[in-house]
Write a structure and sequence with these properties.
By secondary structure, this protein is an all-alpha fold. The protein has a single domain, classed as ACP-like (Non-ribosomal Peptide Synthetase Peptidyl Carrier Protein, Chain A). 47% of the residues lie in helices and 0% in strands. It has four helices and no strands. It has helices at 12-27, 40-43, 47-61, 72-76. Helix 1 (12-27) crosses helix 3. It is globular. The chain starts with 11 loop residues before the first helix and ends in a 10-residue tail after the last helix.
Length: 86
Amino acid sequence: MTADVAPSPLDRSAILQLVQNELAEILEKQPSDIPEDANFSDLGADSLALIELVEALEEHLSAQVAGFHIDDEDLEALASVRDALV
């Protein structure tokens, strides 16, 4: 029998790691190649890549925060990795 374990809250460094890992997968890069201060355009991330990133973040973070969602207006404001640290 396994006990239900509530997901642990994510701190800023865990969210940064999540953003780096997801973006690395989308852009076919290593997470270590994605610094916090990098602009998405400098990384080669286009609008489709950003939509994929937001969808991945919503999927992962909805387990932490019920109903977690990033609005389209907020998506337009994302210019850098740091901006994605919700």
